[in-house]
Amino acid sequence: MQGHGSCLKLYLAFALLLLQNVKGGEVGSSDKDANATGTCIERERQALLAFKRGLVDEYNSLSSWSSESHKQDCCRWIGVSCNNQIQLDLEGYLSKGKMISPKLIELQHLQHLDLGCIDFNGSQIPDFIGSLTNLRYLNLFWGNFGGQIPSQIGNLTQLQYLHLGGNQFNVENLNWLTGLSSLTDLDLSHVNLSNMFDWPEAVNKLPKLRHLDLGDCSLPPPPPRIHSTPFSNINSSTSLTHLNLRDNHLTSSIFLWLSNYTTASLVDLNLSENNLTGLIPDVIGNMSSLANLVLSHNQIEGGNPNSFARLCSLQFLEIPGNRLSGQLSKFVQLLPTCAQNSLETLDLSHNDLAGSLTNLTTFSSLQILSVNNNQLTGS
Ligand SMILES: *[C@@H]1O[C@H](CO)[C@@H](O)[C@H](O)[C@H]1NC(C)=O
Ligand SMILES: *[C@@H]1O[C@H](CO)[C@@H](O)[C@H](O)[C@H]1NC(C)=O
Ligand SMILES: *[C@@H]1O[C@H](CO)[C@@H](O)[C@H](O)[C@H]1NC(C)=O
Ligand SMILES: *[C@@H]1O[C@H](CO)[C@@H](O)[C@H](O)[C@H]1NC(C)=O
Ligand SMILES: *[C@@H]1O[C@H](CO)[C@@H](O)[C@H](O)[C@H]1NC(C)=O
Ligand SMILES: *[C@@H]1O[C@H](CO)[C@@H](O)[C@H](O)[C@H]1NC(C)=O
Ligand SMILES: *[C@@H]1O[C@H](CO)[C@@H](O)[C@H](O)[C@H]1NC(C)=O
Ligand SMILES: *[C@@H]1O[C@H](CO)[C@@H](O)[C@H](O)[C@H]1NC(C)=O
Ligand SMILES: *[C@@H]1O[C@H](CO)[C@@H](O)[C@H](O)[C@H]1NC(C)=O
Ligand SMILES: *[C@@H]1O[C@H](CO)[C@@H](O)[C@H](O)[C@H]1NC(C)=O
């Protein structure tokens, strides 16, 4: 289901292409090639044509990719751009592929490869991907890739953005992550990582990581040994700003891991649909940059006096579907006064909070308040 939403761009682009074909218009007039300023060389053109033979072009979306004389300049081909170096951005133009042609390595300068939402029918990501050492951006999201993630990906030391989510990998280890020292964005959502007990350590070795999405990965909680291992020698992800760990098997031990590595930098934290229990720990209250905190659908019972203490930038606080109990007014008192002008959404619905609706007018930016399905009384 989530795949359909994530690949929406695909369907929109298809609709556009079909419209253009119906009108008999030139497909190659999209803004994707409007900036094509370079001229491609023969070797690159041949490599791209070979690469096209590995794709299934059902709707003739790549009709501009041709050896006809008036289509010689591959920088004008749809999905190709040549700002300094060739970039390939085919997400949205195709829905199926057979293989990623090994001829791709002829494009030695390739920095940007986006094949998102193209179904490669359970095939494996080829090992030679690790030879494209200039890659900065690699998107193979929702590609129906199977087998192992090739360890050669770890050779892509320039890679900044890696999106391998939504695939059917059989992941054996995360050692390959170690080489990705430039990585700022990593998305492995919907990939089964249920046996990757060392995932926190693997992530901690990415010194520049800012965005991490490991949603719906069947992630196990950080194991107890992590709590006793001093990590002072490891380059930790102190740069992390966006962390999405929704829909996993995490327990409250995740808070300990967070406490050492991400307290100052985190802006977005999504821990919804896990197995968090007990009280919201004080470490959350130390995450002074936090704007969005989502703890929906766990078994959290309440907060400590300092659970939110320094969250002066808090905008969205969502804790629906937990076991919050006691008086609503008591819970509201835990909210930081310094966030009175920033808090926009407060969702405490589907809990066991009692008492009557509190006067919240001091939260001057509050736009959405959900307290339904509690034990509230009064008018
Ligand atoms: C093309 O260039 C214009 C301005 O020069 C820019 O706004 C636009 O984003 C560019 N498009 C692509 C696909 O790079
Ligand atoms: C997809 O793979 C299966 C076997 O794994 C094969 O039978 C089928 O022909 C492939 N489909 C395409 C479109 O290549
Ligand atoms: C690429 O990665 C493989 C496996 O991780 C490794 O054996 C090989 O030496 C690497 N090649 C280069 C050029 O770094
Ligand atoms: C994930 O993989 C493990 C085995 O590696 C398997 O037992 C489990 O059922 C898988 N989980 C999902 C959600 O597919
Ligand atoms: C946090 O770091 C300290 C020292 O750097 C270490 O003693 C402690 O075990 C770490 N805690 C966790 C949960 O990793
Ligand atoms: C930490 O990073 C530095 C440079 O970025 C590197 O030299 C060092 O080997 C790294 N240490 C570990 C344990 O990865
Ligand atoms: C958090 O994750 C849930 C799924 O568990 C999702 O519905 C929600 O949109 C996410 N919220 C944010 C702010 O990322
Ligand atoms: C949640 O934790 C409890 C106790 O620690 C355990 O019995 C249960 O299986 C866990 N549920 C999930 C979905 O991980
Ligand atoms: C929160 O930060 C303060 C000041 O830096 C520190 O003394 C305290 O131990 C921190 N609390 C937690 C739970 O990390
Ligand atoms: C709510 O509080 C504000 C200021 O604290 C006050 O002006 C207002 O009259 C109160 N409203 C009610 C219904 O008590």
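^ 2-acetamido-2-deoxy-beta-D-glucopyranose complex. The pocket of 2-acetamido-2-deoxy-beta-D-glucopyranose (ligand 9) is lined by residues 259, 282-283, 286 (CB under 6 Å). Confidence is low (pLDDT under 50) at residues 21-37, 226-235.
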